[in-house]
Design goal:
About 45% of the residues lie in helices and about 10% in strands. With about 220 residues, the chain is mainly alpha-helical. It has one domain. A two-stranded antiparallel ribbon has the order 1-4. Helix 2 runs antiparallel to helix 3. It is globular and about 45 Å long. About 30% of the residues are buried.
């Protein structure tokens, strides 16, 4: 599927209808959020591996990309026109421009327009996987000790170089507790709970606040 078709309202509607069948055609906002989580996971994994390990800018703009999909409409792979090019700018807030401006920005605008969900939900989903894979790359055999530093700088910058608000600013935080490792919590809920049979995810801030209230009450 040409990724650019995601910006066509009719094509996007058909895709979300197909994917929504997996969840009884439940709340369209939650369906779109779940679809975006599959999509952003595949996107972030490949983008960050190429960007941080190889210093290559993959052709991930919607106009350059084709998507491999499952029968249900999940994004399962990316078909690239070429193997990317050396990064033109190593600045932490500029090296991801293709991802942010060529793919995430227009797609999230289209998803929000099609469903009525806040763009912040989709940016939060994207940021969640961006942070996850940036941290995970530290264990890659090709990784330098500071491999995730450019991603960390982006995620902790309130604004982008051109002055725009950074939509990937601090998508998750870590809470110290009784466990050996801090608990990873999203800053915003992915609204999957709007589909009754799913409830909240394991990193949900709503569940975290609910647990805190229960602990205080006891």
């Amino acid at each position: 599927m040409p990724a650019l078709d995601l910006l066509d309202p009719a094509c996007l509607d058909a895709l979300l209808t197909r994917f929504g069948a997996c969840y009884g055609h439940g709340d369209r906002r939650a369906v779109a959020s779940l679809w975006s989580k599959w999509h952003f996971s595949a996107l972030a994994a490949h983008c960050l591996a190429a960007n941080l390990l190889l210093e290559r800018d993959l052709p991930l703009g919607l106009e350059d990309l084709h998507l491999e999909q499952s029968p249900e409409g999940q994004t399962t792979g990316l078909a690239l026109r070429h193997a990317g090019r050396p990064l033109a700018d190593l600045d932490p807030c500029r090296r991801f421009a293709t991802l942010l401006d060529g793919h995430l920005g227009p797609l999230i605008e289209a998803l929000a327009a099609a469903t009525g969900a806040s763009p912040k939900v989709f940016w939060s989903n994207a940021g969640n996987y961006f942070e996850h894979f940036a941290v995970a790359l530290a264990d890659h055999p090709m990784a330098a000790p500071d491999v995730a530093e450019p991603a960390r700088v982006l995620l902790t910058s309130r604004t982008l170089p051109d002055g725009r608000r950074n939509p990937l600013y601090r998508p998750v935080h870590y809470i110290e507790g009784e466990a050996e490792t801090p608990r990873r919590v999203r800053r915003l809920c992915c609204i999957r709970y709007l589909i009754d049979e799913l409830g909240v995810c394991g990193n949900c801030p709503l569940a975290c606040r609910r647990q805190a209230r229960t602990t205080e009450a006891s």
